[in-house]
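Researcher: I'm preparing a figure for a lab meeting and need a structural model of a single chain. I don't have an experimental structure, so a prediction will have to do for now. The sequence is pasted below. Please return the structure as tokens so I can convert it later.
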Amino acid sequence: MAPLHDFTPVRIDYILDSVRRLGTGGADGQIQGLRVLDIGCGGGLLAEPMARLGADVTGIDATPEAIAAAAAHAEAGGLEISYRCCTAEALAVEGPRFDVIYASEVIEHVTDRRLFAAAISGMLAPGGTVVITTINRTLASLALAKVALEYIFRLVPAGTHDPARFVKPAELRAEFAAAGIMLDDMTGFAPRPARRIGGNGFVRTASMAINYAASGTHG
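Model: Understood. Here is the structure written out token by token.
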């Protein structure tokens, strides 16, 4: 989980900036009381900071062990977060609505991205914010996100990523547009310069060659 810990602050900042940009939190962009859905929440690295900021957070993940760990950690920290072991597609059938929906480092593991986007669209409240962070399909991402992280630095388990499922920005935008969501803002993420990989945090960058984020709302 260490690489994701390093990645957390810049992702939270982008989510909050997107909420402000789209006016989901009102004129001041506050998330106090907003209904937030964290898709692929894992151990709660993003869900917990959002809950501390006052959001009403639901975290879902298809892995029971991740949900158990997230729930235990939230309880130990005195945080009220609703964790469920399910997929976005299954949750969407129940008809809930959320003001903010994000899926961070998830969509590159999804088999049917169009169905996934449709599920998100169906759960997004009017004027709500969608944020996706993922990995671009480029030679640079193959070298870093696959070869370097998995086999050279061994920061994530071998086999974690399938480069064929990495998503180009144009593909992501088109698939969400087909579901009725306009992803009108994109930015790249990169490790802080002049530091070693895996222990330094990330910054935003104009280059989307490896990691990038996108946000938008219903079109």
